Amino acid sequence: MTVPPEVGKKIDKLVPSRRTVLHMGLAAGAGVCASALATAAQRSPRNTDAALLNTALEVEHQTVAAYDAAVGAGLLTGAALELARHFQSQHRAHRDLLVEEVRKLGGTPAVALAGYAFKGADGTPTTFKTAEDVLVFALGFEAAATSAYLGLLPRLASKSLLPILAGIACDESQHAAAIRLLLKQQPAPEAVVK
Questions:
Q1: Would the CA dihedral through 164, 14, 50, 91 be positive or negative?
Q2: Residue from 149, 50, 24 nearest 16 by CA
Q3: What's 125's DSSP letter?
Q4: DSSP per residue over 50-61, as a string?
Q5: How is domain 5-182 classified at the CATH fold level?
Q6: How far is it, in rounded angstroms, from Cα 28 to Cα 180?
Q7: Sequence ranges of the domains in the chain
Q8: How far apart are CA 180 and CA 84, in angstroms?
Q9: How far apart (Å, rounded) are the C-alpha atoms in residues 191 and 194?
Q10: What is the pTM of this model?
Q11: I want to staple 31 with a disulfide (CB 3.0 to 4.6 A). Which of 43, 65, 86, 188 is the partner?
């Protein structure tokens, strides 16, 4: 699965392409932003990393809300409910870790929206009729989160952040594999996670 378009656009706005950096003649273009984040305070690798972590934090806020909706639907029972609650707690831990890391970088952590409207591919609101609907919904978020984290890794200026984001990406991938097992699908459908 690829990075969701809205996350990809945010990433692309935060960090310019290599070609753009070369054209601008900047040897270390990590801090050049193509959006409102391109302020003097944002023109350092440290603050670019904070902006990238905030993109990841936005993904976690949305995923926590998705699990709130999934668990709140009341359709999961037994092992599926236990697993969903466990993943929900891990997403909260991811969120808290990212908040801490953004603050260490001198940034202001992204705040969760007051509410999230989840829609299907056809644009209609997501509704759950069965436990399988809930699991498919959760799988979509886990696969998208994995891709989002993998997309952020090469853009980080600080290599010390790599283990944190790579670890979260691995955890997201584990979540997806476990949900696939519950859905009686191949847990590792591809040799390389994208």
A1: negative
A2: 24
A3: B
A4: HHHHHHHHHHHH
A5: Ferritin (1.20.1260)
A6: 41
A7: 5-182
A8: 13
A9: 10
A10: 0.76
A11: 43
Calpha distance 86→138 (Å, rounded): 13
CA pair distance 155, 15, nearest whole angstrom: 7
Which tokens is 121 given? 């591919």
The continuous run of DSSP H or E covering 105 comes out as: none
Q: Which residue is associated with the tokens 């969120």?
A: 95
One-letter amino acid at 24 equals M
* Cα 105 to chain centroid, rounded: 19
Residue 106 contacts by C-beta under 8 Å, 6 or more apart in sequence? 46, 47, 50
Q: E strand or H helix at 33, and its extent?
A: none
Chain segment 111-140, per-residue pLDDT in tens: 999 999 988 888 899 889 999 999 999 999
| Whole-number pLDDT of residue 5 | 60
Residue 116 burial (10 A CB sphere; 0-12, 13-18, 19+):
middle
Phi, psi of 154 (to 5 degrees): -70, -10
Cβ atoms of 139 and 183 within 8 Å: the answer is: yes
In the chain, the amino acid numbered 113 is L
